[in-house]
Amino acid sequence: MNVRRSAAVLAAAAVIGAAAPAAADTSPSPSRALPSALYGDSDPQYDGVWRQSLALLAQHTVGVEPSKAAVDWLTGQQCADGSFAPYRADTAKACDAKTMVDTNQTAAAVQALAALGGHDDVTEKAVGWLKSAQNEDGGWGYVAGGASDTNSTSVVIGALAAAGEKPAEVKKDGKSPYDALLKLALPCEGDGAGAFAFQPDKKGGLAANADATAAGVVGSLGAGLVVEPGKGGSGEAACEKADGPEQAAANGAAYLTGALAEDGHLTSALAGAEDQPDYGNTADAVVALAAQGAGEQAGKSLSWLEKNAADWAARSGPAAYAQLIFAAHATGADPRDFGGTDLVKQLGATGPAAEKATEAKAAEKKDESESESDSGFGVWWFVGICLVAGIGIGFLISGRTKRQRP
């Protein structure tokens, strides 16, 4: 959901060559302008569908109806077998064995289109393809046939749930996605206790990965990229032996709470950048903690993002704005006043104009909410006071950030 997609491509590089046909160069021609319906202005070769899906889903989440052209662009990236390619410059040309497709983009598209509604034919075909790409351990890799990883398995779980499927019943050789996640969860003893690994290393060992842990918590709870405020698990808990996905989620949340406790943010896992904040992974961690009900740390880290993430989002583009919107939404914060930044407006500026009627209604609702706040009454006034007091109000892709290399 995007910085995470770039890392996923790098992490999957070792398996793409062995598991999929050589990918065609689908980068846009230097002389060809990007489609006006596409969000963002960077090369979409690897993350076009991912960032488009997150942008559409974020707009829908805050009550803004996305541009029909933007939705049509997304559906147009689907191949006949149901999978999604990150970017098909010429959609009149059918996908072939050289077309690069992956589970993450496909799962993100399903979540966005299922939320928007009216695209059952598209989502059903996409879910069918995802099921066909399920591994024998019950999980998914970044590409069909690649080794299962926590992030890919989790975003597919979100897609299955969004499409009305029961993830626990989607099995391959008797194994469900939750079985795959449990195999990627670290025990409560030793380094990284309770965390999730991205993938096992070459010797089968598991190393804690904060980004994979955020994804694993959400996936273990059967949730997707968007989490409603006040929903989730049982809150903060000590690490215990994971005998099921719920306990694995609680363990992962405990690990994230510890990782965030000192500075309020996660740091980059990239070599040479370990001392730099990782804004995207921190936003994902906020959503994960909210999903589990660990409201206190989620609120603290959201406050850090409000103070520090605006410049990062402006540099990174639509998927970054979407991640921050998801974090704000999961914690009950206002994405239209995120540390003084209107994330909804900023996201909208990266793509085609939203449908004006719905956009106006969303603005009207915002004015009504502010009026209630000014009067000293109403539920939003109460929620705002609770947030300031650090009480928390019960809490939960997108796409995917710095992952452990397999």
Automatic annotation (TrEMBL):
It comes from the Bacteria. Residues 349-374 are annotated as: Disordered. Keywords: Membrane, Repeat, Signal, Transmembrane, Transmembrane helix. The keyword Transmembrane helix applies. InterPro entries: Prenyltrans, Terpenoid_cyclase/PrenylTrfase. The chain crosses the membrane at residues 379-397. Residues 356-368 have a biased composition (Basic and acidic residues). Residues 53-160 form the Prenyltransferase alpha-alpha toroid domain. Residues 1-24 form the signal peptide. This is Prenyltransferase/squalene oxidase repeat-containing protein. It comes from Streptomyces atrovirens.
